[in-house]
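Ticket #4471: structure export looks truncated?
Reporter: QA, pipeline team
Priority: medium

Steps to reproduce: submit the single chain below to the structure queue and open the exported record.
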Amino acid sequence: MKLLVLLLSFLIILPISLIAQESGYVTMNDSLVLKPSMIFSEEFSDLDDWIAEQQPGGKVFLNSGKMEIEDKGGCTVWFDKKLVQPVMIEFTASVIDEGGPQDRVSDLNCFWLATDPWHGDFFGDPHPHRAGKFSQYDSLQLYYVGLGGHNNTRTRFRRYTGNGQKPLLPAHDLSDEAYLILPNVPNRIRIIVYNNTIQYWRNEQLIFNFFDASPYESGYFAFRTVNNHLIIDEFKVYALSKRGEDFLSKPKSDNQ
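Actual output as written to the record:
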C-alpha cells in the first residue's frame, strides 16, 4: 500500500511532529538543519507511479516488493509526480553481479528536477522523442549523477541546461574507489535540493555539494541506467523546511 501525504492542511491525518520525529532532521551544513516531512513512500506493490522508457532487450518489473531493472541498451524509469523544491529524495539501490546476462557493475544513475523546454507535455502519449537512449535526454533541463559510470571508473555530476549543454566540472568528475560501486551491496542514496544548494549523498557520505545560482525549482525524478541489473527499494520523497519553522500553520484551539 502506498502512502501519499498531500501537503494540504485539511488532508493531513498525522501531525507533522510525528512525521518529523520518524524522519529525524537533516543537516546540510554547520548553520542549516532541515526538517523533512514525508509526502510519498513507495512500497512497490505495483508500478502505477512509474513510467519506463527503455531500449529493446530490457525490462522493468516487480520482484518481492522491489523494483527490478534488467537493461541492455538504455533505460530511464520516471516517477510520474512532479516534485517542487525544497525537496529530499531517498532510495536504496543495489547493482547486481551474480552471473546474469545483464549483471554488469556500472551506472547507478539518476535524473532529478527534470523538465522539457521543447515539449509542453513531459509524458506525451506517445513520447517518441525519448525511448531510453541516453542522448535523447540532452535537450532536458535537469540535474544528473552517474554513479560508477564508464564501467565503474567514474562518478559524475552534471547540470543539463536544456540546449544540449551539460558541462562537467573537474570537481564533479571523481575516480577514487570511495565514490564507485560495490556489487550486490545496498546503496542508500539521498538527494537534497534546498534553494541554491544541491547535495548528493551515498551511505551518509556527501559526494557532491553544488551551489546553483539559477536553481531548477521543479521537475521529475528518474532512475537511469544502461546494460546492467538494478534492484530498487525504499523510495521516499520529503518536503523540507528549516528546523524551528512550522511547515504548516498550527490550527487555533477553541480557547483562542
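Status: closed, not a bug. The export was complete when the record was re-opened. Leaving a note from the reviewer for reference: The chain is about 5% helix and 45% strand.
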